[in-house]
Amino acid sequence: MGEKNVSMAVDLGGVRMKNPVNTASGTFGFGKQFEGFFDVARLGAITTKGCSAVPWAGNPAPRMCEVPSGMMNTVGLANPGVAGMVEQFGDYLAGLEDRDCRVIVQAAGHSVEEYVAAVEKIEELCPWASGVEMNISCPNIARGGALVGGTPESAAEVVRAVRPRVHRPLLVKMAPVRVPEIARACEAEGADALSLINTINGMSIDVRTRRSRLSKPTGGVSGPAIHAIAVRMVWEAANAVKIPVNGMGGVASWQDAAEMILAGATSVTVGTANFYDPTCASRVVDGLAAWAAEQGVADINELIGAVEC
Ligand SMILES: Cc1cc2nc3c(=O)[nH]c(=O)nc-3n(C[C@H](O)[C@H](O)[C@H](O)COP(=O)(O)O)c2cc1C
Questions:
Q1: H or E element: which one contains 167?
Q2: d(CA 186, CA 165)
């Protein structure tokens, strides 16, 4: 089977993508920044940086550092707010939709009220967006910094509040904790798809200064260092729910993406690799098509969850 004959389209909970390749929130700006490297419209979708109802400054520098096979960040969800994003990138993002690349706008919050405010702004100001992704891996300030989506109960509470206000596909971006239970809780409250994994909490110390290498004691680890953990969690989620899974975590090649699909991911998202290899996502599109042809399938969907354990 030639790769031109393989259907690569996937349906991520109502977000209809021409191929399964997406980019991870916070690692791809608002897409426009990457147009100088490749034609961003080659991708099935992009996901924006998480935006809140009002702009957030985020954490002080240093906010990022390298660690073996990955990086750590404590960006703290710095963002221009939904209106700021629309002012700077709205025309570009609407045009990207016209170019057949789906735009998923991510909502950020520190409390149920802040998520509701963020999705209401997205509904009002982003009519072009194909989907809304809610990042529930944020700390809940009112609850001592525990993750908003750190338990099935707290995840269910925020999805329940937001669901009736989002009139297009709602994706929930999960923290890498209690995956099957939280996945089921989000599905039960009406999520259309799940995105995972977010970064895994880590710590890196400069042994000369004896200080954390970030402005906070700990930060989120991402990149190839977390890939095998991410594949396992995607597999767990895909086996726990019926809604589709958007798999990410250390995807840096088409082989990594293919692993995610075999583990049960309907779409695959490139994150940290965008920083050091800005054409990575574009090459993953080509690599996946060639792999599907080599596997002898007529449709990439035949390979979703096709791992033989
Ligand atoms: C600098 C940076 C900023 C990020 N910002 C966000 C964000 O705003 N919202 C979110 O859900 N995830 C954010 N993430 C997490 C990524 O979207 C992704 O889930 C994670 O990095 C795992 O994928 P990767 O190993 O391919 O990077 C960020 C990651 C990095 C490295």
A1: none
A2: 15
Active site residue 138: yes
Q: Which domains occur in the chain, in start order?
A: 3-303 (3.20.20.70)
Nearest alpha carbon to residue 90 among 116, 128, 119, 121 = 128
Distance of CA 172 to the CA centre of its chain: 9
Does the pTM exceed 0.85? yes
User: Is residue 140 predicted with pLDDT exceeding 70?
Assistant: no
Is 75's C-beta closer than 6 angstroms to any atom of ligand 1? yes
Whose C-alpha lies nearest to ligand 1, atom 12? Answer: 25
Indicate the pairing of strand 64-67 with strand 70-73. antiparallel
For the chain, the residue count is 309
- Which member of 51, 138, 186, 280 is catalytic? 138
C-alpha pair distances (Å), 1 with each of 4, 18, 20, 266, 301:
8, 19, 19, 21, 15
Tokens, residue 161: 């509040």
- The answer on pLDDT for 3 being more than 80 is no
* Relative orientation angle of helices 179-188 and 152-162, to the nearest 10 degrees: 30
If residue 202 lies in a helix (H) or strand (E), which one and from where to where? strand 200-202
pLDDT in tens, 157-180: 999 999 999 999 999 999 999 999
**Are 166 and 124 within 8 A, CB to CB?**
no
* Ligand 1 pocket mutation, candidates 25, 56, 267, 270, criterion most atoms within 8 A of CB: 25
Please give the distance of CA 214 from its chain centroid, rounded to a whole number. 23
Give the pLDDT of residue 75. Answer: 84
Residue 222 CB less than 6 A away from ligand 1? yes
DSSP-derived secondary structure letter, 209 = T
Q: CB of 32 within 8 A of CB of 5? A: no
Q: Within 10 A of 109 (CB to CB), how many other CB atoms are there?
A: 26
